[in-house]
Amino acid sequence: MENSFEKNNMLKEFYIPTYIFMPESSVEQVSHIPCCPVIVFINTRSGGQLGHNLLITYRKLLNHAQVFDLLDETPDKVLHKLYNNVERLKRDGDTLASEIHRRLRLIVAGGDGTAGWLLGVVSDLKLVHPPPVATVPLGTGNNLPYSFGWGKRNPGTDRESVISFLKLVKEAREINIDSWHTVMRMKCPKRSPCDPIAPSDLPHSLHAFHRVPKTDPEDMEYSYTYRGGFWNYFSMGMDAQVSYAFHSQRKLHPEKFKNQLSNQKQYLKLACTQGWFCASLSHPMSRNIAHLAKVKIMKKSGKWETLEIPQSIRSIVCLNLPSFSGGLNPWGTPSKRKQRKRDLVLPPLVDDGLLEIVGFKDAWHGLVLLSPKGHGTRLAQAHRVRFKFHRGATDHAYMRIDGEPWKQPLPQEDDGKVVVEISHAGQVKMLATKDCIAKGINDSPMSTTCTDSSSSDDSDDDFTEERRNFGAALSFRYMNDVKKTVEA
């Protein structure tokens, strides 16, 4: 067992002095340069009381100034201020600031949505040496932490548990993962029932802005565009519906969602009450994916092609990481015969510029994943996906990005339109332990790298402007007025 002296010495390796964060503070004379300086972001709403307890412990072990409650300070403001100050200190010849800049690692504690929020901000900074991110599981699904070896459940909030986690952060290796850009456009006649989504109902990773009509401002139609990103998955259908019900109930009755175990029980209960286990009886065919939307994909050839969706599929998942719904792998391992037949790349990798697209019929189909070789219905692998929703199929659909769901209005009029497009948007750095299940190109000699999406045929691409203007740090702020035009 380590004594207190050894532990205190070890904690110095993570410590960042206050003046690094605050330009108004006096420069401190520090004799020791930490080998693994960290900034900690904690969503104190996640995991019931766990988030609050974790905040207290980290602030006791480290400098209070390097541990942030996301309810009080957003990561974009924190990191912009930090890097501006670090650059100023580096210009003044501050060696410690230079080393912290070079060695910095980020820790984020919360659900998958919280982790995605931070990843989006880091992506938007466009740093030459972006800091890698470690994730503390505090949410319900915890797919991001599980994928990179951090576990499915919170490792503990006491002093010993946090010190053990910090050691893992110091020893962790860096791994690149793909970032995915999502653009959604709604075009509806004025006074139609296809209203824009309220900013408060949007996921953190989806941002609304109004695209001014190119013709007369009094034109009889309006167009809203939403843009954002994800790192694990985009899903649509019954799984997102259950997730939406869960989030709605948690907002109404937070006292019922006190810890991770009770949250998971509530989630399973909602899956039953929402009819996910008896979908053929509880849900009309109009909610099946093939009835909702026409799906197109772009493979390595750079040409759009229609993806045929079986009529029985009620959920579709565009997956980047090998973890969904709390650690299940919907893709599995295709046989070589199926790989050749469907033009699949084996194995699925997190940095190959490809998404795995999987379908599910109902919850019973999902339970197949619990078996060693279980998987969903493998539909395709692609580096761009487009959903164009049929008019009048139903009045709304449920969608989800990295654990954060929303209820998406769909057009009812003949000239209404809702289109969602997903495309590759670069990479971010994650920290991975020895238990990491995610595999990259360097881990798999059998893999092939996908051609970059910038070489694709964009002859029918309506999203060039949104893709060019995309910026996560700006996107991850709720807008007071979605009708306001956002300048590039």
Report on this model:
The protein is an alpha+beta fold and 488 residues long. The protein has 2 domains: 1-171, Rossmann fold (3-Layer(aba) Sandwich), CATH 3.40.50; 180-438, no CATH class. 28% of the residues lie in helices and 24% in strands. The chain has 15 helices and 17 strands. The chain has helices spanning 4-11, 50-61, 75-91, 95-103, 112-125, 143-147, 159-171, 238-252, 260-273, 279-282, 289-292, 336-342, 363-367, 464-469, 472-475, and strands at 38-42, 67-69, 105-110, 133-137, 173-189, 206-210, 221-230, 233-237, 293-298, 304-306, 315-319, 355-360, 377-382, 384-389, 396-401, 404-409, 417-432. The strands form 3 sheets. Strands 6-7-5-17-14-9-10 form a 7-stranded antiparallel beta sheet. It has a 6-stranded antiparallel beta sheet with strand order 13-12-11-8-15-16. Strands 2-1-3-4 form a 4-stranded parallel beta sheet, sandwiched between helices. Helix 3 crosses helix 4, helix 3 runs parallel beside helix 5 (112-125) and helix 8 (238-252) crosses helix 9 (260-273). The chain starts with a helix and ends in a 13-residue tail after the last helix. Mean pLDDT is 77; it is low at 212-220, 364-372, 447-460 and 465-488. Residues 33-186 form the DAGKc domain. Its EC number is 2.7.1.107. Monomer.
